[in-house]
Amino acid sequence: HIADAVAIGGDVEACQAFHETGGQPPESAIAERRVGFELFELGEPGVFVGWGLVMIGVGYYVTAGQLPAPCVWLATIPYALIVTTVLLGKHIDKLEADRQKGIRTLPVLLGERTSLWLNMALMSAFYAIVVVLVLSGALAVWVLLVFLALPRLIEVLKIYRQPKPSKPPEN
Q: Dihedral (C-alpha) 75, 79, 85, 91: value to the nearest 10 degrees?
């Protein structure tokens, strides 16, 4: 059963890689011939499911030898949100280039301002969901240590509210 879970998890990740590269080897995806989840607006949802729910759920199954309890599935949500915000932020940063190439990422579809607000909401929701999961008993109280990063969130939210710089930072 454990081998089946590893195979299923690997198959899901292989399908995601296949879509991200348009069926080409990864090197050719770099050559601007990229066809992927972005064409179907599935990049962010794909990361949420693939990197969050599937990877953690399959990892749990491989480790424990049984399917995760509902509280474990709920505990995957904060992690899935955070990895999704990374991709969303990357797509916001290259929104104009993606639009010109015809890559329909979520920020291309929603626009820059809406995407920025969505990403800020997802980053903030991470903390709210952690509190709810701790209060419900799905997560242990020590998980509240993530709140040590709250000053960084506040700093990032301030940056997100500022106009985009005209050129990239020096470093």
A: -120
Measured CA distances, 40 to 18, 43, 44, 64 (Å): 14, 8, 11, 35
Tell me the whole-structure pTM to 2 decimals. 0.73
Helices (H) and strands (E) in the chain, counts: 9, 0
In angstroms, the CA 160 to CA 16 distance is 29
| DSSP 8-state secondary structure symbol assigned to residue 30 | T
Instruction: Report how far residue 114's alpha carbon sits from residue 122's, in angstroms, rounded to the nearest whole number.
Output: 12
Strands (E), 16-166: none
Torsion angle of the four alpha carbons 82, 86, 146, 114, in this order, in degrees rounded to the nearest 10: -80
Across the range 103-125, mean pLDDT stands at 93
With beta carbons less than 8 A apart as the criterion, state whether 50 and 17 touch.
Answer: no
CB 112 within 8 A of CB 74: no
Quote the pLDDT of residue 61: 86
